[in-house]
Amino acid sequence: MLTLASDIEVLVRFGRALADPIRCRILLALRQAPAYPSDLADALDISRTRLSNHLACLRDCGLVVAVPDGRRTRYELADERFGHALDALRTAVVAVAADKTCVDAEKEGCC
């Protein structure tokens, strides 16, 4: 049974997904069109095993869904509004000082 996530849970899940560059690349690729894992791995130039791990994370976060297609499985964004959110985030202006860098997620004070 599916339950609806709270506003905070949605943002946390989105943030967790976007915290990794490979997952960002996957989401942007799926923003363009649904895809099969083998095609995604080739397009993103990563191993199928690595892609599979990232797709599992994105599925667990509820951002992508696996759609059976005969003997294959196609992946797509779970909600078309995620694509619009990705576009808005991608084109947003981030205000940063020239002498500041974004700290790693594992360190204190991460942006």
UniProtKB/TrEMBL annotation:
Cross-referenced PROSITE patterns: HTH_ARSR_2
SMART domains linked: HTH_ARSR
InterPro entries for the chain: ArsR-like_HTH, HTH_ArsR_DNA-bd_dom, HTH_Metal-responsive_Reg, WH-like_DNA-bd_sf, WH_DNA-bd_sf
Domain HTH arsR-type positions: 4-100
Gene3D superfamilies the record matches: Winged helix-like DNA-binding domain superfamily/Winged helix DNA-binding domain
Name under which the protein is recorded: Metalloregulator ArsR/SmtB family transcription factor
Organism: Streptomyces goshikiensis
